[in-house]
Design a protein that fits this description.
The protein is of the alpha+beta class and about 425 residues long. The N terminus is likely disordered. The longest helix has 23 residues.
Length: about 425
C-alpha cells in the first residue's frame, strides 16, 4: 500500500487541490454548463485465429490480469442484478422506488449490518414522502430512523421535513483531542444518540431556499465493548488528562436557520452545477447539562463539472465551527467537530480527529460504466483546529484516496461500495439502501 507522508510536497499538493476545489465550487454555482450526451457505438469485430504458441505466450498476461477480471466480473454481476435478475425488483435498481428495500452495510467498526426500510407516498398531502429504516450489526450497532417530507404546507413553495433518529454505537474509537492525535493512543467507547428535528422551509426561487431548524437532542457515552482496546471511561479520562465534563451526558434544544443556493442539474446524480449551503444553530443545554451553551456553524460547497461524455469531476468543501458562549466551560468531546469515517476522511476510522473546528475537502472523478452504475476515484483531505480563524494552516492536513462504485435508481444512490487508503489503514465500506 502506498503511504502518504506530511512532507512539503504533499502539503503543496493539498494546497493546490484545496484552492482548485474552492474555485470549482463557486464557478459551478455561478454558471452551469450543458450536459454532454453519451454516444455509444457498437462494433463487432472478427477475432483472428491464434496459433498454439501465441496462446502459450499469452499465459503470463492472463495470470497478471486475474485481478482485472475479478473487478470486471463483480461489475458485470452488479449490472446483472440491477437489470435482469428477480432480485432487481426488490432492490429497484434503475426503477421507481418500491415499498420495501433492504438495508445492508459494512465498516470496520460496526461490522456487517442488516435491516429493512419502508417508503410511503401521498400520506397527508400530494406527493409527501415518509421513509422508515432500521438496522442491526454483528458488533451490536443499531439504528432506527424515520423521515417525513412534504410540500406546500403554508402556501406555494413551502416545505416541511421532520426527522427522528436513535442510534447506539458500542465500538467507537477515540484518539484524544487535536489534530496531532496519535494512532497508537486508540481507545474505545459507546455512543448513544437520540434526536428529533423539524425543518420548515421556503423556496424563494428555483435556486434559492431558506429554512429553520428546531429540535431536541440527547447524547451519552458509556464504556466501550471492544475488548481488544482500552474501554473504561475512567481509564480514558486519566490517559488523556481530560475532565469529567468531557464525558458528561448532554441534552439540549436547538434553533437555527439554513440558506442554500442549489444549481445542481439532478439531486440524485449531478453532472453539472453546484451548491452552497450555510447552516447555523444555537444549542441550549437542559437539566444537568444546562451549562452547555454554544453555536454550531457549517458551510458546505459542492461543484460538478462535466468534462466530456458524462465524465464528472466533483469537488466538495466543508468548514465546521463550534463557538462556546463561555470559553471557560467544557464541551463534551463527542459534541466537537470530528473527521474520519464514511462521511469525510474515508481512509481513517470515525472520530479519528476531534476538535472544536474542522476543514475538509474531497475531489472525485466519476466515470459511467452503465446507465445505472458509476465508478469513481477520490482524494480526501482534512484538518481539525481549536480555532479555525486563528489557527488555520495548509500544513498538517491528513489525506486519503480510494476507489468505489455507485448504483442508482430514480431516487438517487441506492448502493455504494468503496475502498479508502491512508497512511494508517485501509477501510472498506458497503452500503445498500443506506442513502436517504
Amino acid at each position: 500500500m502506498i503511504r502518504l507522508h506530511n512532507n512539503k510536497t504533499i502539503q503543496l499538493l493539498m494546497s493546490v487541490i484545496f484552492v482548485t476545489s474552492l474555485s470549482l465550487s463557486f464557478a459551478s454555482v455561478v454558471k452551469s454548463k450543458e450536459v454532454v450526451a453519451d454516444s455509444i457505438v457498437a462494433r463487432n469485430r472478427q477475432a483472428p485465429s491464434k496459433s498454439f504458441a501465441r496462446k502459450l505466450l499469452k499465459a503470463p498476461a492472463l495470470v497478471l490480469g486475474v485481478p482485472v477480471y475479478a473487478v470486471k466480473g463483480m461489475t458485470y454481476g452488479v449490472i446483472y442484478v440491477g437489470t435482469e435478475s428477480p432480485l432487481s425488483h426488490l432492490l429497484n435498481f434503475g426503477r421507481p422506488a418500491g415499498l420495501f428495500y433492504p438495508i445492508v452495510g459494512y465498516s470496520s467498526n460496526k461490522g456487517l449490518s442488516g435491516g429493512v426500510g419502508l417508503r410511503f407516498r401521498n400520506l397527508w398531502t400530494d406527493d409527501d414522502r415518509m421513509k422508515i429504516k432500521w438496522y442491526y450489526s454483528t458488533h451490536s450497532y443499531q439504528r432506527y430512523k424515520i423521515k417525513y417530507s412534504g410540500d406546500n404546507y403554508w402556501g406555494d413553495n413551502s416545505s416541511l421535513q421532520v426527522v427522528g433518529s436513535y442510534h447506539k454505537r458500542p465500538r467507537e474509537d477515540f484518539y484524544g483531542i487535536g489534530n496531532e492525535s496519535k494512532e497508537t493512543d486508540e481507545v474505545n467507547f459507546t455512543l448513544e444518540h437520540f434526536e428529533i428535528m423539524a425543518r420548515p422551509g421556503w423556496n424563494l426561487n428555483d435556486n434559492l431556499s431558506l429554512g429553520l431548524e428546531l429540535g431536541y437532542t440527547s447524547r451519552n457515552v458509556y464504556d466501550g465493548e471492544d475488548e481488544a482496546s482500552l474501554r473504561s471511561l475512567d481509564s480514558i479520562q486519566v490517559r488523556f488528562g481530560l475532565l469529567e465534563e468531557h464525558f458528561s451526558k448532554s441534552s439540549f434544544i436547538s434553533i437555527g436557520g439554513r440558506i442554500e443556493i442549489n444549481r445542481v442539474d439532478h439531486p440524485g446524480r449531478p453532472s453539472q452545477g453546484g451548491m452552497v449551503s450555510l447552516l447555523t444553530r444555537y444549542n441550549k443545554g437542559l437539566e444537568t447539562s444546562s451549562n452547555i451553551d454554544y453555536y454550531y456553524t457549517r458551510l458546505e460547497m459542492a461543484g460538478y463539472l462535466n468534462l466530456f461524455n458524462n465524465r464528472i469531476l466533483a469537488a466538495r468543501i466543508m468548514v465546521q465551527s463550534i463557538d462556546m458562549l463561555d470559553d471557560d466551560l467544557v464541551l463534551p468531546f463527542y459534541l466537537m467537530s470530528g473527521l474520519g469515517g464514511l462521511d469525510n476522511l474515508r481512509g481513517y476510522d470515525s472520530y479519528r480527529f476531534i476538535d472544536k473546528d474542522a476543514g475538509f475537502y474531497s475531489l472525485e472523478y466519476r466515470y459511467p460504466l452503465w446507465h445505472i452504475l458509476d465508478a469513481f476515484l477520490f482524494l480526501d483531505g482534512g484538518h481539525v483546529f481549536d480555532d479555525l480563524s486563528d489557527d488555520f494552516t495548509f500544513a498538517g492536513w491528513h489525506s486519503d484516496y480510494g476507489v468505489g462504485l455507485r448504483l442508482f435508481n430514480t431516487d438517487g444512490v441506492t448502493f455504494r461500495m468503496q475502498t479508502a487508503f491512508s497512511r494508517e489503514r485501509t477501510n472498506f465500506y458497503l452500503e445498500l439502501g443506506a442513502d436517504w
